[in-house]
Backbone:
């Protein structure tokens, strides 16, 4: 009795915590920022721990403790992708990695310290991971674990019709609030999301999201859930009327009439809430969101048509369409409709991003570049049309995941999704209860919407939207398992039960270790970011250049983030330059400070070899060690190697990066006799980088800047003419 009471309390606490997290995550800007992401992760992991304890049960007859897990169709997808993510960060022998991903080997070789490294064609004998930068993959493991745990635990918690309807209602209330808040802050002229003043999407409804497309993704899911829920209530009411018949007592008929009115009012409210979210979707002006929602509603209506008991529920969806359209026309839809006129321009830009992402995939076909590494690796492939932009996502989740996970990861994803959909459809076809049929179709409709929208945007990189997707899937899964049991509607799941020895003990330990590992790294990541910000956070005015001591504290919490080491090097450079200006450092201290800078930059390069800026800064520091006895044998070749690595990753994104590389090779060429082949090599590199910079930036001032710099080292018009992309006679005449 006491044990049962404790179990019930644990379950209620976990359920309450999950509902709070589900509502709070969208309200905190979609939980994209570190503080909100940390609250979300710790809340989900804490509730997961409570349910782990609940799932340790004692078998009555044998008296043996057992561990049980819900047996859902998503278990397979969760496990195989989690294993794949861990495989991406496990060091592998050079020969194995060369077979799986030759480009990953080439990139990791460029992360080795340049003074002790010489470019070789053969294997280095070192073990590297499939992902050249492991930190983003580790964060992806945490997110995937949290999303998977959220779905599995919420599925188990939704063990009654009352809880299913409560969760559904709460989701719809949250969606309605998002729309009403968004309409108020957009059309009142405030353009504030809580305390944050919007800088973009000023004429679009975004709710508490910064990006309209991510708000539209939330609206799609809430709208589809509202349609399925309204249909479920309509079908349930009709079924009960048919069963009850006409020859009943007056009291029964009055009771049925009152309950029918209550259900009718409830259904009307659900349809009205769906209309509100439809309005929010339209006035988000997200073209992909509108198209995806329409396609998913079509999918949902087709599901109802295929089932004889639910064909009339298509009218509920039609009414939702009509009410939404009437309200939208009354408000005015000129602006949202007008955005479709420019869809070709937008599609061209996103098609270019997708094409460049596929170029990245061609280099990492088998196992990908590492899930989460897109933003770090993309600058090498970035198109010239997107110069001076830092692109974090491909605006096509399918192409981005293919590049990050390769053929192996993509096939595992498709296999996991296919197995889950197969299990859902198989169960859905066996159910006859209209409530289960209608709500059970919601996961399929929502997955259709997100699959289409993901072709144009990156909704699945928004934590709150992933949680909402998991919530709708859990609601649908639980509704399909809802059956009449001992006078109450209860969800009857299949559990995989294992005695706590051998397999059971291993499964329990693995789950506990994963939860504890995720929680520990979530806290460490939050503490590190609290001291030194590297994750974009537009809603809080953080110091982008914190003091030296705070950067060191961040490294103490999380030394695997290359951004902290780069910021450490930048701060040390600032301090060194200030001391040089004030003449406060002697030669010994200057040398020590420079070596500290080099060590920090070498660590940044070792962790994240993708960033050309890291290699360039490191090469410049090597080049300044002229007083060292080993300069010509050690540091000068190391500087050359670092500059070659910077050129390898530079791409066509940053013209100023190419100018700095050109400047280095001009200076380097002055240390070599002009009659040798080495001089020709250095000079040709300088010319190539200068011309690349001019092709990316056509301003005349840029060519003038390059010409004057070269003139300082080579006061001859022939040399200046070599570095100019176009023969500029006026500029050459200015050279004295």
Residues:
């Amino acid at each position: 009795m006491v044990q049962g009471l404790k179990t019930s309390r644990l379950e209620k606490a976990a359920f309450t915590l999950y509902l709070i997290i589900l509502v709070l995550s969208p309200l905190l800007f979609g939980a994209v920022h570190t503080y909100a992401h940390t609250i979300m992760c710790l809340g989900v992991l804490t509730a997961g721990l409570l349910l782990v304890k609940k799932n340790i049960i004692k078998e009555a007859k044998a008296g043996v403790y057992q561990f049980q897990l819900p047996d859902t169709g998503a278990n397979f997808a969760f496990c195989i992708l989690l294993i794949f993510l861990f495989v991406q960060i496990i060091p592998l022998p050079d020969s194995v990695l060369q077979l799986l991903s030759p480009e990953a080997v080439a990139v990791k070789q460029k992360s080795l310290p340049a003074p002790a490294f010489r470019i070789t064609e053969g294997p280095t004998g070192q073990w590297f991971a499939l992902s050249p930068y492991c930190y983003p993959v580790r964060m992806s493991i945490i997110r995937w674990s949290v999303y998977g745990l959220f779905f599995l635990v919420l599925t188990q918690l939704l063990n009654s019709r009352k809880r299913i309807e409560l969760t559904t209602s709460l989701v719809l209330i949250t969606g309605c609030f998002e729309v009403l808040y968004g309409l108020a802050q957009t059309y009142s002229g405030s353009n504030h999301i809580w305390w944050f003043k919007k800088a973009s999407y000023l004429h679009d409804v975004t709710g508490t999201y910064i990006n309209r497309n991510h708000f539209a993704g939330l609206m799609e899911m809430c709208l589809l859930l509202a349609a399925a829920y309204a249909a479920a209530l309509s079908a349930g009411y009709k079924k009960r009327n048919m069963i009850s018949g006409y020859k009943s007592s007056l009291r029964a008929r009055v009771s049925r009439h009152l309950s029918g009115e209550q259900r009718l009012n409830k259904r009307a409210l659900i349809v009205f809430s769906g209309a509100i979210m439809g309005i929010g979707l339209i006035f988000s002006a997200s073209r992909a969101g509108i198209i995806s929602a329409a396609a998913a509603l079509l999918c949902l209506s087709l599901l109802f048509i295929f089932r004889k008991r639910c064909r009339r529920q298509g009218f509920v969806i039609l009414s939702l369409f009509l009410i939404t359209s009437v309200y939208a026309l009354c408000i005015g839809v000129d602006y949202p409709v007008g955005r479709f006129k420019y869809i070709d321009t937008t599609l061209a830009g996103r098609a270019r991003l997708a094409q460049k992402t596929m170029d990245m995939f061609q280099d990492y076909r088998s196992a990908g570049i590492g899930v989460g590494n897109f933003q770090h690796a993309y600058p090498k492939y970035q198109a010239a049309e997107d110069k001076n932009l830092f692109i974090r996502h491909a605006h096509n989740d399918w192409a981005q995941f293919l590049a990050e996970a390769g053929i192996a990861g993509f096939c595992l994803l498709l296999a996991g999704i296919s197995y889950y959909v197969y299990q859902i459809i198989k169960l859905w076809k066996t159910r006859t209860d209209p409530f289960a049929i209608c709500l059970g179709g919601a996961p399929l409709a929502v997955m259709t919407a997100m699959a289409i929208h993901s072709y144009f945007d990156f909704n699945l990189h928004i934590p709150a939207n992933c949680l909402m997707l998991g919530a709708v899937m859990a609601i649908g899964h639980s509704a399909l398992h809802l059956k009449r049991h001992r006078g109450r509607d209860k969800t009857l799941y299949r559990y995989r039960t294992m005695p706590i020895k051998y397999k059971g003990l291993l499964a329990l330990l693995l789950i506990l270790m994963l939860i504890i590992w995720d929680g520990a790294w979530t806290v460490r990541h939050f503490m590190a970011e609290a001291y030194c910000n590297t994750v974009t956070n537009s809603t809080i005015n953080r110091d982008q250049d914190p003091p030296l001591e705070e950067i060191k504290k961040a490294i103490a919490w999380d030394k695997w983030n290359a951004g902290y080491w780069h910021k450490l090097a930048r701060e040390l450079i600032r301090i060194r330059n200030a001391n040089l200006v004030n003449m406060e450092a002697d030669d010994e201290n200057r040398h020590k400070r420079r070596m500290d800078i080099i060590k920090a930059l070498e660590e940044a390069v070792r962790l994240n070899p993708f960033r050309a800026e890291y290699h360039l800064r490191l090469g410049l520091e090597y080049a300044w060690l002229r007083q060292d006895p080993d300069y010509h044998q050690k540091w000068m070749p190391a500087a050359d190697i670092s500059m070659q690595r910077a050129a390898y990753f530079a791409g066509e994104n940053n013209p100023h990066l190419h100018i700095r590389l050109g400047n280095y090779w001009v200076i380097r060429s002055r240390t070599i006799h002009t009659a040798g082949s080495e001089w020709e090599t250095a000079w040709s590199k300088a010319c190539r980088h200068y011309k690349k910079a001019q092709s990316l930036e056509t301003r005349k001032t840029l060519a003038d800047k390059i010409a004057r710099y070269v003139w300082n080292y080579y006061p001859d018009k022939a040399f200046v003419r070599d570095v100019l992309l176009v023969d500029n006679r006026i500029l050459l005449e200015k050279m004295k």
The radius of gyration is 30 Å.
